[in-house]
Amino acid sequence: MTMRLPADGDAMLAAAALKGRLGGLVPEIAVICGSGLAELADAVADPIHVPYDTLPGFPRLSVAGHAARVVAGTFGRRRVAMLQGRVHAYETGEADGMAAPLAALALLGCKTLIVTNAAGSLRAEAGPGSVAMLTDHINLTGRNPLTGAVGDGRFVDMVDAYDPDLRARFRALAEAKGIPLAEGVYMWFPGPSFETPAEIRAARLLGADFVGMSTVPEVILARALGLRVAAFSLVTNLAAGMGGTHLSHARTLARAAAGAAVLRELLVAFMEESA
Ligand code: HPA
Fold it and tell me: The domain 8-272 belongs to what CATH superfamily?
């Protein structure tokens, strides 16, 4: 099934530019590093850094805690392209800000996307510092990154969007290594204001376990591009109205940095596994 994205022109230029910078390295796995999680890329050996502002269609970023570059290289036994920084719908009003980067990486040969984010938790037992693997999502924002795409490929099947095989492998690795790993459904709120306590109560009724302002558009794009997806939330706070505290971006970043080590351990275990 064919599909053309408005970002396809930029994606082709960006793929060519990236290819020129990577000197023969063909990344198999792309990783989006979420808020406060840029250091996940520290595990990349012989890294090649490519600033977003040299790549057509890549976002120009405005959020503290997000670098703005691709870090490509070898991570364990895998060749990776780590995206340090994403653009959120709340920055531009557009949900497709990561379309060109993801399409470019798919053109380069990436088959798998691992998405990470900072999130609020609706589950008291998975509190700040917990890492959760996402099993599904809820998008009632009225926004979709494929709006404006052309062709039958835009009607993307979202059953098993969070790849069951990858989930089983991550689950087995977490158990083998003794890494605590929660799991559940992520609900996308567009932000940038945090949710109200009433919205969180509504989200709970709808089946959400975690809430955040990213990831869902990227997962939809990735599925449209034929990438397999795994996604992880680093819980930085209990959701609004649950923790008895007020929410802030500064607290989100501080908590993300503290919990990033667990997520990194999990990724290292995955990347060390033979393909
Ligand atoms: N809500 C939305 N986004 C978030 C949260 C939250 O509670 N925590 C970190 N990112």
Answer: Nucleoside phosphorylase domain (3.40.50.1580)
Q: How far is the CA of 62 from the centre of ligand 1 (A)?
A: 17
**65 pLDDT band (50/70/90 cuts)?**
low
State the Cα–Cα distance between residues 199 and 54, nearest whole angstrom.
Answer: 40
Q: Hunting for tokens 């994606």 — which residue is that? A: 11
Alpha-carbon torsion (81, 93, 221, 154), positive or negative: negative
For residue 120, the CA-to-ligand 1 centroid distance in Å is 4
Q: Which is more confident, 40 or 160?
A: 160
Instruction: Note the pLDDT tens digit of each residue in 247-268.
Output: 777 776 777 776 788 899 999 9
The rounded Å distance from CA 98 to ligand 1 centre is 19
Ligand 1-lining residues (CB < 6 angstroms): 118-120, 189, 194-195, 211-213, 236-237, 239, 247, 252
Whether 108 and 91 have beta carbons less than 8 Å apart is answered as no
Q: Under a CB-based contact definition with an 8 Å cutoff, are residues 61 and 87 in contact?
A: yes
The closest residue, in CA terms, to atom 6 on ligand 1 is 120
Query: Which tokens belong to 73?
Result: 């290289």
Q: Which residues contact 202 (CB under 8 A, 6 or more apart)?
A: none
d(CA 261, CA 243): 23
By most ligand atoms within 8 Å of CB, the mutation choice from 252, 253, 255 for ligand 1 is: 252
Angle at 5 between CA 83 and CA 134, to 5 degrees: 45
pTM for the full predicted model: 0.94
Residue 234 CA to ligand 1 centre (angstroms): 10
Domain boundaries, the chain: 8-272
DSSP 4: B
